Amino acid sequence: MFEMTESALVAASVDTVWSDLTDASRLAEWIWPPRFETEAVVEPVQLGRWEVRSSVAELAVLGRVLEIDALQRLRLEWRWEGEEHATDAGLTLERAAGASTRVTVRHTGFLSAEERESHIEGWSNCLQRLVDRYGGPPGEHL
């Protein structure tokens, strides 16, 4: 199995970033590009739904909350619609200097290096949109 880790520094408080991950309307505003006209469903409880869908892009992630520790950690079962294989995406929030938040994504369970590379690119783009949402600082990706 393959895995990846991406991280970014977001110029917003942990409370704000947590809402961006767990409030459906806020998640839909940044997770994918605006042209995707993203819709989201979030049930921020153990085994709750965490889904992101774009009819325009014909794309959907059908997720389930595996672990939730408010303001600190969200772990999701991550499955692309139409695929049987699910992966595990963990998002961790840490307070950083200047009221910023370090967001780290550790995504595991990929079946191939190509699948991992595709998700590195996807998460890097998602995290940069979250950074841009708050006007900087430039994304620091590890």
Structure commentary:
- The chain is of the alpha+beta class.
- The mean pLDDT is 94.
- The longest helix has 21 residues, at 113-133.
- The chain has 3 helices and 7 strands.
- It has a 7-stranded antiparallel beta sheet.
- Helix 1 (14-22) packs across helix 2.
Per-chain topology:
Blueprint: E1 2-10, H1 14-22, H2 24-30, E2 39-42, E3 49-54, E4 59-69, E5 73-80, E6 87-96, E7 100-110, H3 113-133
Antiparallel strand pairs: 1-7, 2-3, 3-4, 4-5, 5-6, 6-7
Helix pairs in contact: 1-2
Summarize the structure.
This protein has 142 residues and is of the alpha+beta class. The protein has helices at 14-22, 24-30, 113-133; strands spanning 2-10, 39-42, 49-54, 59-69, 73-80, 87-96, 100-110. The chain is built from 3 helices and 7 strands, in the order βααββββββα.
Give the C-alpha Rg: 14 Å
Number of E-state strands:
7
The rounded distance between the terminal residues' Cα atoms is 20 Å
Query: Helix segment count?
Result: 3
Return residue spans where pLDDT drops below 50 for at least 5 consecutive residues: none
Portion of residues in beta strands equals 35-45%
Strand order of the main beta sheet, please?
A: 1-7-6-5-4-3-2
Q: Characterize the biggest β-sheet.
A: 7 strands, antiparallel
- What class, by secondary structure content? alpha+beta
Oligomer: single chain
> Shape, please?
globular
Identify the notable features of this structure and list them briefly:
alpha+beta; 3 helices
